[in-house]
Amino acid sequence: MADRLLGIYNAFLLDVDGVLVRGSVPIDGAVAAFALLGETADVLLLTNNSTKTRTQHAEQLQRLGFEVYADQVLASAYLAAEYLLDKRGAISVWPIGEEGIRAELVAVGHRLAGRPEEADAIVVGMDRGLTYAALADGLSALRSGAQFVATNEDGTFPVPDGVRPGAGAMVGALRGMGFAPDVVIGKPSRVAYRLALKRLALPPEQVLMVGDRLETDIVGAQGIGLDTALVLSGIATREDIDSTGIRPTWIADDLAALVRGDGVDSAAG
User: Fold this and answer.
1) Which of 109, 251, 257, 264 is the most exposed place for a label (fewest CB within 10 A)?
2) Inter-residue contact 175 to 142 (CB < 8 Å)
């Protein structure tokens, strides 16, 4: 299976949390498996984690032993900044989230609004320091006509001892005030996958998406024609495949098993 897997795809899109790491801990065998993939094909990291810049994501993974570079990282904060630049040019933005969002918005040429009422758009991602005041500012921006851009709507993200609230909790707070996102950038949105395929300059059939979430990684990739591999080292379980009816092309215990071909099943059909 390993030779076949590495031979039939010219590129791999990998989620990070639940595929390479859990929190700040590498998943067993993931460092070596990532290196092997990089020797045989193009590899991009497609992550909904908006808390860090591309450079910060790469540096953190490098400290854990992964040989990865910033230009391989397509994080939702960066993708949101690029999306707005492509659709609206450089605009005034009010961020709700951590440093990754603010830094990536400024890096591509956007301006941070001085007051929420002055913002052309708000960009919302995970914020582990979220306050009532921040939500009130977001509401003010939305009531003043700002476009609502969600980096992603993941309800949770995996950590070594379980799961924690994700960006979906922040987006959901604003939704609870009567405002749904105008656009969601991260998986399962096709926006993320289109930008990734554009970067790779490859057709969908030559690319495999590897993720740990059926409802984001797998569904999103399937929607744009990619083959998919579910690894069981993060959120989803084998039982979830039956209960949801979402069937990836491949299923394996983790990235190392997928690359080795140990116990890999075809789940499609």
Assistant:
1) 109
2) no
Task: Give yes or no for a cis peptide into 158 (omega within 30° of 0).
Answer: no
DSSP string across 106-148: HHTT-EE-SSGGG-SEEEE---TT--HHHHHHHHHHHHTT-EE
Q: What is the DSSP string of 42-76?
A: EEEEEE---SS-HHHHHHHHHHTT----GGGEEEH
Is 227 one of the catalytic residues? no
15 belongs to the catalytic site: yes
Q: Pairing relation of β-strands 250-252 and 21-22?
A: unpaired
Active-site pick, 3, 15, 120, 217: 15
Distances (CA, A) of 22 to 154, 171, 174, 201, 249: 15, 23, 28, 30, 23
User: What contacts 269, CB < 8 A, 6 or more positions away?
Assistant: 247
Distance CA 114, CA 159 (A): 35
Instruction: Provide the total of helices (H) and of strands (E) in the chain, helices listed first.
Output: 11, 16
The pLDDT tens digits along the chain (269 residues) read 445 677 789 999 999 989 999 878 999 999 999 999 999 899 999 999 999 999 999 999 999 999 999 999 999 999 999 999 999 999 999 999 999 999 999 999 999 999 999 999 999 999 999 999 999 999 999 999 999 999 999 888 767 787 889 999 999 999 999 999 999 999 999 999 999 999 999 999 999 999 999 999 999 999 999 999 999 998 899 999 999 999 999 999 999 999 988 777 776 55
C-alpha 247/C-alpha 161 separation (Å) is: 27
Rg of the chain taking only CA atoms, in angstroms: 18
